[in-house]
Amino acid sequence: MFDAKDFIYMCILDTQLMLSGSLPAVKVILEIAGGDCLEQRDANNRTPLMLATMCGHGEVVNLLLAQGGELCFAS
After folding, report:
1. pTM (two decimals)
2. Which residue range is the domain that position 46 belongs to?
3. Which spans in 20-73 are helix H?
4. Residue 75 lies in a domain
Protein backbone atom coordinates (compact mmCIF):
# COMPACT_ATOMS: atom_id res chain seq x y z
CA MET A 1 0.00 0.00 0.00
CA PHE A 2 1.38 3.38 -1.02
CA ASP A 3 1.05 5.93 1.78
CA ALA A 4 2.37 9.38 2.65
CA LYS A 5 5.55 7.97 4.22
CA ASP A 6 6.32 6.02 1.02
CA PHE A 7 5.75 9.17 -1.02
CA ILE A 8 8.19 11.14 1.12
CA TYR A 9 10.88 8.43 0.85
CA MET A 10 10.35 8.22 -2.91
CA CYS A 11 10.75 12.00 -3.27
CA ILE A 12 13.94 11.93 -1.19
CA LEU A 13 15.34 9.00 -3.17
CA ASP A 14 14.45 10.59 -6.52
CA THR A 15 16.06 13.88 -5.53
CA GLN A 16 19.23 12.16 -4.31
CA LEU A 17 19.50 10.14 -7.52
CA MET A 18 19.04 13.14 -9.79
CA LEU A 19 21.30 15.53 -7.91
CA SER A 20 24.29 13.49 -6.83
CA GLY A 21 23.80 9.75 -7.05
CA SER A 22 25.62 9.42 -3.72
CA LEU A 23 25.90 5.71 -2.97
CA PRO A 24 26.14 6.18 0.82
CA ALA A 25 23.07 8.44 0.82
CA VAL A 26 21.04 5.99 -1.25
CA LYS A 27 22.06 3.16 1.11
CA VAL A 28 20.80 5.13 4.11
CA ILE A 29 17.52 5.94 2.35
CA LEU A 30 17.00 2.26 1.51
CA GLU A 31 17.78 1.21 5.08
CA ILE A 32 15.17 3.61 6.42
CA ALA A 33 12.53 3.26 3.72
CA GLY A 34 12.95 -0.42 2.93
CA GLY A 35 12.80 -2.15 -0.42
CA ASP A 36 9.23 -1.14 -1.15
CA CYS A 37 10.42 2.26 -2.36
CA LEU A 38 12.26 0.56 -5.24
CA GLU A 39 9.02 -0.10 -7.07
CA GLN A 40 7.38 3.28 -6.45
CA ARG A 41 7.09 5.53 -9.48
CA ASP A 42 7.40 9.27 -9.78
CA ALA A 43 5.04 11.60 -11.64
CA ASN A 44 6.73 10.56 -14.91
CA ASN A 45 6.23 6.83 -14.16
CA ARG A 46 9.97 6.28 -13.47
CA THR A 47 11.37 3.99 -10.78
CA PRO A 48 14.52 4.80 -8.81
CA LEU A 49 16.41 2.29 -10.99
CA MET A 50 15.32 4.12 -14.12
CA LEU A 51 16.43 7.46 -12.66
CA ALA A 52 19.81 6.11 -11.57
CA THR A 53 20.34 4.67 -15.05
CA MET A 54 19.27 7.87 -16.81
CA CYS A 55 21.61 9.94 -14.63
CA GLY A 56 24.58 7.61 -15.16
CA HIS A 57 25.02 6.52 -11.54
CA GLY A 58 26.41 3.03 -12.19
CA GLU A 59 27.23 2.14 -8.58
CA VAL A 60 23.73 3.11 -7.50
CA VAL A 61 22.25 1.08 -10.37
CA ASN A 62 24.17 -1.97 -9.15
CA LEU A 63 22.97 -1.39 -5.57
CA LEU A 64 19.35 -1.01 -6.64
CA LEU A 65 19.55 -4.20 -8.71
CA ALA A 66 21.09 -6.05 -5.77
CA GLN A 67 18.27 -4.79 -3.54
CA GLY A 68 15.60 -6.10 -5.92
CA GLY A 69 15.06 -3.30 -8.40
CA GLU A 70 13.23 -4.64 -11.46
CA LEU A 71 14.84 -4.55 -14.89
CA CYS A 72 11.60 -5.05 -16.79
CA PHE A 73 9.28 -2.17 -17.43
CA ALA A 74 5.63 -2.56 -18.25
CA SER A 75 3.37 0.44 -18.47
Report:
1. 0.77
2. 4-66
3. 23-33, 48-54, 58-66
4. no
